[in-house]
Design a protein that fits this description.
Length: 739
């Protein structure tokens, strides 16, 4: 019995449609107390003193906590550099500083949310303001105020790639294309703002019920800050309500755990509940990294790119979060998916007092890809060559060597994916190669101009760069002669993508039993082993392999008449390696997905409005375990990327956010999304994927913005190197408004 390739109905679709699914904000326990957080509201300051006496005397206040209550006052996923609570009396040096407006300073726990909110305002904090580093250029100043004095520089890290001999190769180039590209911050805008509940469970564990992307990482970070053994901390995810990378780093997890734990020490055994407002959510969690990318590429007149020089600067914001990994992906994508034999690439992550930047669908890929694809599109124009033909002459194929000096893992389908997308978009293969269709005509006499653009990309799967990818699954088989019941434990997070449906499908298929026979226990550190994160397009691949391993072991026990059969299997993916410091040489990724996208759009040259009419998105997913869910991922990704490309304008000035609400930060509504998305699902199996599946959740994001700007060029003849292409920016590009 196999469910692979079947669009099994999402297991939680009915409960979500009916409003019955329980998200962290919906879950209440008897006798719960409410927590509110005092955020710094200052971009950069030393917290000299915190006076909580008035707040503590407010009737209904149960407790107020500050830095001195945090045993090990630090956290961070890759680099541990952020205080749990900022203020004096802490165990860690420089934890008395706030570095962005969403830094947390104090917690109030009270009988009601209203009382807690009132009491937060009664806390008196004495700040000594420090100069605010509000941009990449500020951060690059050598004599600027240090945001992390113990780091010694506002440059978090610099990575360099040296491949071939770029200086020499530029001399062989017939044309050189240069550009400076700016990509924006982006807010995840998930439906469920940060919320959660903490309590001490029946076995005495500090338990947090919350939305996240990786239960076991959160368990570890909580245990570290509270200085508790791992098994004293439990993390449970109910329905999650969207994540997109924005839940990869902590928000309410540690402070919730801290509050319940400290209350218990005071003899108060009460659950603690928190729900962030939308404004707290927008200020309180990380954003997509804004990048500035300087690119110079050289090509021969036959259309072979021979050299690239790229410099990437990222606004990392106030803390490291996942900036180093994001930069790794941006570096690779800044010349990919093309085989460029000579390249000098430098990437700098720069600390600022802006909101920390971190993971967001694509994980650095979209930033690098925008520069690469703009360069490609401009190069095609300079060479008088069709943009698809130029791409086809340069895209990676089986055996291609990347700028990091190693070959791509097997299963490279970029040429095929590009060809399928181009054909669907009306390109024709002629004796001279690919030829684009006529630019579509707009209604005569109107202000509308139509254009078509195409771009392609690849997206790595996994955290990469030497991080050992792992994923575990546990399967128990019960019955006498026949298997009558299967109990399946997995920590993989269903962030809304349908992960739990796909995991169940894979478990049933690996065991050869009906899905109905499987009882699932998901996303609880008390019962499931580490699955790794639901991010980096990794979960289906990693979880599938863990499930196949556990199923095979359980079935073997079953054959040996062990009843019940119980097996846990830990899948370890192929090893990757980090950038070698001088050259960037590495084997960074275990696998990739390949994507090409064609956009048809309309520019209103009077209002500057850009409207997407049609998006064709061709994705090699290896094997679509559940085609409907794959389509959902493609459509969701395209819509989110369309917002990134033409609408979502996150503005920070002087360390303050000017777009703290969804009325000032606009995300796409039904009227803004593309009229049509054509999802083209291709299945070239990945040799390491379960049933050949590749990760695919992020890749449709990458080529959308550069396909849009290529289409804008086709429509109105100007290159837009900065986005989102809001009406103002479009009119400025047309010379109708000042820049
Ligand atoms: Mo994501 S950016 O892989 O959570």
């Amino acid at each position: 019995m196999s469910y692979i390739g079947q669009s099994v109905q999402k297991i939680d679709s009915v409960s979500k449609v009916k409003g019955e699914a329980m998200y962290p904000g919906d879950i209440n326990l008897p006798d719960q107390a409410y927590m509110k957080i005092l955020f710094s509201d200052r971009a950069h300051a030393i917290v000299e003193a915190i006076d909580t006496s008035e707040a503590e005397q407010e009737p209904g206040v149960i407790a107020v906590f500050t830095a001195k209550d945090v045993p090990v006052n630090e956290y961070g996923q890759i680099i541990i550099d952020q205080p749990v609570l900022c203020g004096p009396g802490s165990t860690k040096p420089y934890a008395d500083r706030v570095r962005f407006i969403g830094d947390q300073v104090a917690l109030v726990v009270a009988e009601t949310e209203e009382i807690a909110a009132r009491a937060v305002k009664l806390i008196r904090v004495t700040y000594k303001d420090l100069p605010v580093i509000s941009s990449i250029d500020d951060g690059l100043q050598e004599d600027g105020e240090l945001i992390h004095p113990d780091h010694g520089s506002n440059i978090l890290n610099h990575v360099q790639i040296r491949h071939g001999n770029a200086e020499e190769a530029f001399k062989q180039a017939d044309v050189i294309v240069e550009g400076v590209y700016e990509t924006p911050a982006q807010e995840h805008a998930f439906l469920q703002p940060e919320a959660g509940l903490s309590y001490i469970d029946e076995e005495g564990r500090v338990t947090v019920v919350v939305s996240g992307q990786w239960t076991h990482e959160e368990q570890e970070e909580i245990a570290h800050a509270l200085d508790l053994p791992l098994d004293q901390v439990r993390v449970i995810y109910p329905a999650i309500g969207g994540a997109f990378g924005g839940r990869e780093d902590m928000s309410v997890q540690i402070v919730l755990a801290l509050a319940a734990w400290r209350l218990q020490q005071r003899g108060i055994n009460r659950p603690v509940k928190i729900i962030w407002s939308r404004e707290e959510s927008i200020v309180g969690h990380a954003k997509r990294h804004p990048y500035r990318i300087h690119a110079k590429w050289g090509a021969t007149k036959e259309g072979k790119v021979v050299a690239a020089e790229v410099k990437l600067y990222a606004d990392a914001g106030a803390y490291a979060y996942t900036s180093t990994t994001v930069m790794g992906n941006a570096l690779i994508n800044s010349t990919a998916p093309y085989e460029i034999p000579n390249a000098n690439i430098d990437g700098y992550n720069v600390f600022t007092n802006n909101i920390p930047s971190a993971a967001f669908r694509g994980f650095g890929g979209p930033q690098g890809a925008f520069a690469a694809e703009q360069q490609m599109s401009k190069l095609a124009e300079m060479l008088g060559m069709d943009p698809v033909e130029l791409r086809a002459r340069n895209v990676v194929k089986e055996g291609s060597i990347l700028t990091v000096g190693t070959a791509l893992p097997e299963g490279v389908s970029m040429p095929e994916v590009l060809a399928v997308c181009a054909e669907k978009a009306g390109w024709q293969m002629t004796e001279q190669g690919w030829r684009r269709p006529e630019t579509p005509a707009a209604p005569a006499g109107s202000n509308l101009r139509r254009g078509r653009g195409l771009a392609c990309a690849f997206k790595n799967i996994g955290f990469s760069f030497g991080f050992q990818e792992e994923c575990s699954a546990t399967i128990e088989l019960y019955g006498d002669a026949e298997i009558e019941k299967v109990v399946f434990y997995h920590a993989g997070a269903d962030v809304g993508q349908g992960g739990h449906t796909v995991l169940k499908q894979m478990a049933a298929s690996a065991l050869g039993v009906p899905v109905e026979m499987i009882e699932t226990h998901y996303s609880d550190t008390a019962t499931a082993l580490n699955s790794g994160s639901a991010s980096a397009s990794r979960l289906t691949m990693m979880a599938g392999n863990s499930i196949i391993g556990a199923a095979n072991q359980a079935l073997k026990q079953w054959k040996n008449e062990e009843r019940p059969a119980k097996a846990s299997y830990r899948y370890l993916a192929r090893k990757t390696t980090p950038f070698e410091p001088m050259t960037g040489k590495s084997f960074p990724n275990i696998a990739y997905g390949y994507v090409a996208e064609a956009v048809e759009l309309e520019v209103d040259i009077e209002t500057g409005h850009v409207h997407l009419i049609n998006v064709i998105c061709a994705d090699d997913v290896g094997k679509a375990i559940n085609p409907d869910l794959v389509k959902g991922q493609i459509e969701g990704c395209v819509v989110q990327a369309a917002g990134y490309a033409v609408l979502e304008d996150f503005i920070q000035r002087g360390g303050q956010v000017l777009t703290k609400t969804l009325s000032t930060y606009l995300i796409p509504t039904i009227l803004d999304i593309p009229d049509q998305v054509d999802s083209v699902i291709l299945e070239y199996p990945d040799p390491t994927g379960p049933w050949g599946a590749r990760g695919m959740a992020e890749m449709p994001f990458l080529p959308l913005a550069p396909a849009v700007t290529a289409a804008i060029h086709d429509a109105v003849g100007v290159w837009v190197d900065r986005f989102p292409v809001t009406p103002e920016r479009m009119l400025a590009a047309l010379g109708k408004l000042p820049e």
